[in-house]
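Quick entry, no commentary yet.
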Amino acid sequence: MFSIEFLFRIMGAIGGAIGGGMWGDDLGRLLNVAPDTLTAYVVVLGLIGFLGGLVLTPYVTIRPLRYTRHRLATMSVGRLVAIISGLFLGLIAAALISLPLSLLPSPFRQIFPLGAAFIFCYLSIMVLTSRQNDLQAIISSFRSMTPSITGDLSENGAILLDTSVIIDGRIADISKTGFIRGELLIPRFVLMELQHVADSSDALRRNRGRRGLEILSIMQNESPIPVTVTDTDVSDAREVDSKLVALGKHLKCPIMTNDYNLNRVAELQGVSVLNINDLANSVKAAFLPGEELRVKIIQDGKEHGQGVGYLEDGTMVVVENGNRRMHKTLNVTVTKVLQTTAGRMIFARM
């Protein structure tokens, strides 16, 4: 069965052969060559057109279409709306200016309207895509004017994101898995705090802030669920954590965070909290005393004779007398499992 790309290659080769042959005939007649030489011109240029069409046709037809389809399928809704809105506004602006341009003498009246349409569409798309967060905020502000916005957010499972969970970065991978179904809301004051961290004079804080901004960009472009920057604010709070808790109570939304203090404060005020560290600990493999596992000893433990290794999910394994077998992979038996706020620790012996 022929593929679509092969069919396009054949069609392009036939068209290239015909076009090349016609070009060879015109070129030979222009140079006033002999009939035999004219036939050679037609055959050679026809073959060149055939080969050119066979090789190049997919690159100017079906492959750009596939790339466009892939980009549209993976593009976020906010960016797609910004591009369509920019194209629409650019065409309106071009239509308004095409009337005075059509009064110019030829050939300017044919060229300038087309150039104006291209320029206005390009500028409109660039402006709206660079300000797509503001565009989404305007749309959200119109939606927030309806009296049912709080109920809609809680019913749709909207989640407020804290600065710590954005910088952590794991939320980008979690959002791609499909476990989160609701909308992810990023308050404007959280985005401003993230920008303040990215502008810090301290190199470590600056890198963390820039990482958070990169994570947000990835989520807006690649996440299958909507990621919205909301301008909804609370005037009775000043600090970011207090604002986030108050906004969570107002919108009846849970807060996703890795901040231990924010976690406790929100729970005390009756706001639901989703902690990614708790999620990571809950999905780690469970081991019971007496089970065997393999681990590589990479460092000494705190107590004398202990060796420490790590499983693939990051779980720490403390092995009795393991320091004697440093940098070796051992079969060990689990003796005790300890759950801490930092994660799960496994104690074992050889």
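second:
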Amino acid sequence: MSTKTPTSTSVGRDDGVLDRWKRQVSLFLVGQTITTFGSFLVQYAIMWHLTLETKSGIVLALAAIFGFLPQAIVSIFAGVWADRVNRKIMIIVSDSAIALATLGLALLMLSGVDDLWLIFVAMAVRSVGAGVQMPAISALLPQIVPADRLMRVNSINSSVQSSLGLLAPVAAAAVYANMSIVAVFFIDVVTAVIGLSLLAMVAVPTLSRVTDGDKPSYSADLRDGIRYIFSNELVRWVMAVFGIVFLLIVAPSNLSPLMLVRTFGSDVWMLTVLELSFGVGMVAGGALMAIFAAKINRIRAIIGTSIMFGVLAVAMGLTTNLILFFSLFFVIGVVVPAFSTSAMTLLQETVEPERQGRVFGFVGIVMSVAMPLGMAVLGPLADIVSVELLLIVTGAATVVTALIAITVPAGKRAIAAAHAADGSAGNAKS
């Protein structure tokens, strides 16, 4: 038996139900926004601190490893946990561990102990916590949001997260420059306490399998999750497209600053405008998705945005106009929420609640591995060939990937399954 979220029909008949789920979702999203803001502050402050104090490329490389690798490793195991325990408790425990690790580091640094290995340990703990939280959060949302409102809620959340990406660097710079990195750590602890307090007020139903004394072993659950992902054609298709596109768009998203410096100049204001263009685009994209969520076909959005990524990357590789370059990067920012939100929502709508943790555990692996893996290949290549060529090649590859995804038999069957599910949902509502 799976837990059920209220449908749009029942919500429409009962204003009390409508008010309840909106209150629950508001508490959850506000709490997550506050804790994420604190996490962003720490993320920027640590990287700046390591850069300014060591000026070492090796140190920054180690920071990237400690910041990403633990999250990638723990994600698959965390996905299984998210299907075996109460997801709200899972988020609270992981967030508490992150806050305690940050508090411990702050107190040690206040006492004069600021060894690099302590910062790396704290980064690893925070990375593990993020890996534990991701599948739990993604799988929890469908438990408290009506199915027909998932796209809109995910889009609002995406827009808010993007806004934090613009605000956090400014706030982190102000605190770090005028106070210290320790002050940033204490702010993160306070935001975690506030966020956890709000989350504690959210009523999240416990899945029936969590309390089932006859549930499979952990390893059996893990194997079942892997089999499910590879056997369900729609889920397998979404995961494959998501993973390949996420890997390919590393080029425009991470190599654009390098092309800017090499082609247009190294003025700081140019880099600032470039990052703002992308960030503002993501905020706008999330807002547009929230407004038009009810009219957006998930499959068409995934394919359409994948093709747009490719075309935009090729255009960036070909342009010699600075304003056009900024404009194209802005549009890429607009497209990102449409792609990621559509893919995540389709998975939330397709996968039964009892398996969502494991599925989103694999999504977490893709998201945490794609960037360092893509840069490990494209970064050295950018010193051999031009960034423009890499953008054109990866852009063309993205378009080809999207076209193959809708023409191969497996893709056609997956798309047919998605349309069949939409038809069933529409008949159920009527």
